[in-house]
């Protein structure tokens, strides 16, 4: 029997989707704080070392190489994590919207914000006091990519390669952007063979009522690994 457009199983399924989406956000915020602190600590350590009195690059080759390499690596991992979060948060939102429309179109909670016919009057990308439909996930992905590129520039300038030392700043920037993109592509291609069939983890509608939030979280974790790889 349906109450207010929902029966108990439908409402339970909808609530679990919303909880899983919220849990995905919470986990991402935790790891984003971790990456931010780690990258900041590495940069502070690097700047403190090179600005210390009596610093000579030849005396700290191993330490400088280690900090710059690890800073670049952590920044890449952070960028990939941001991309994975952005991908899966869109998937959770799509599931919520689809279930809401299928179960009770007249009782829209989330979908009503996506069904506005004309959003142009609500957006202004250049007026400082007007709102704009800008994705925070995309901005965060751009920022994390820029952070990785910045660490790449520091690393390229440090490497004892004569060709790199003779490059103009814009050329070094281009090398860092290109190298970061190539490394990301190689990473995805290298792990492509280990991707699992995502359909294996889809939950049939008739079994959803027996699925609790813990199972959804585990499935979301597997999906996250699938995306990262």
What does this structure look like?
With 229 residues, this protein is mostly helical. The protein has one domain (8-106, 135-228). Helix content is 68%, strand content 0%. The protein has helices at residues 8-50, 61-103, 136-158, 162-165, 169-190, 205-208, 213-228. Helix 1 packs antiparallel against helix 2 (61-103), helix 2 packs antiparallel against helix 3 and helix 3 packs across helix 5 (169-190). The protein is elongated, with a radius of gyration of 23 Å.
Topology, element by element:
Elements: H1 8-50, H2 61-103, H3 136-158, H4 162-165, H5 169-190, H6 205-208, H7 213-228
Helix pairs in contact: 1-2, 1-7, 2-3, 2-7, 3-5
Total of DSSP H or I helical runs spanning 4+ residues: 7
Low-confidence stretches: 196-229
From the spread of the alpha carbons, the general shape counts as elongated
Order of helices and strands: HHHHHHH
Helix content: 55-70%
Number of strands: 0
Q: How many domain units?
A: 1
Structural category: mainly alpha
Average predicted local confidence, pLDDT? 75
Amino- and carboxy-terminal Cα gap: 43 Å
Gyration radius, to the nearest Å?
A: 23 Å
State which percent range the strand residues make up: under 5%
The biggest beta sheet is recorded as: none
């Amino acid at each position: 029997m349906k109450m207010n457009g929902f029966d108990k199983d439908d409402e339970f399924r909808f609530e679990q989707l919303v909880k899983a989406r919220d849990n995905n956000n919470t986990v991402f915020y935790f790891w984003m704080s971790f990456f931010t602190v780690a990258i900041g600590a590495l940069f502070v350590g690097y700047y403190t070392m090179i600005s210390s009195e009596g610093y000579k690059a030849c005396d700290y080759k191993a330490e400088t190489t280690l900090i710059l390499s690890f800073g670049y690596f952590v920044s890449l991992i952070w960028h990939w994590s941001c991309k994975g979060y952005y991908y899966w948060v869109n998937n959770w939102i799509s599931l919520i919207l689809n279930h809401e429309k299928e179960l009770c179109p007249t009782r829209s909670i989330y979908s009503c914000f996506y069904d506005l016919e004309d959003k142009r009057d609500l957006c202004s990308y250049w007026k400082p006091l007007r709102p704009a439909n800008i994705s925070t996930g995309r901005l965060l992905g751009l920022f994390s990519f820029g952070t990785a590129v910045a660490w790449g520039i520091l690393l390229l300038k440090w490497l004892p390669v004569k060709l790199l030392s003779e490059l103009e700043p814009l050329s070094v920037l281009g090398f860092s952007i290109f190298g970061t993109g190539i490394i990301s592509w190689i990473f995805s291609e290298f792990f492509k063979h280990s991707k699992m069939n995502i359909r294996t983890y889809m939950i049939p509608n008739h079994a959803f009522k027996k699925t609790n939030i813990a199972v959804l979280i585990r499935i979301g974790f597997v999906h996250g690994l699938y995306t990262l790889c």
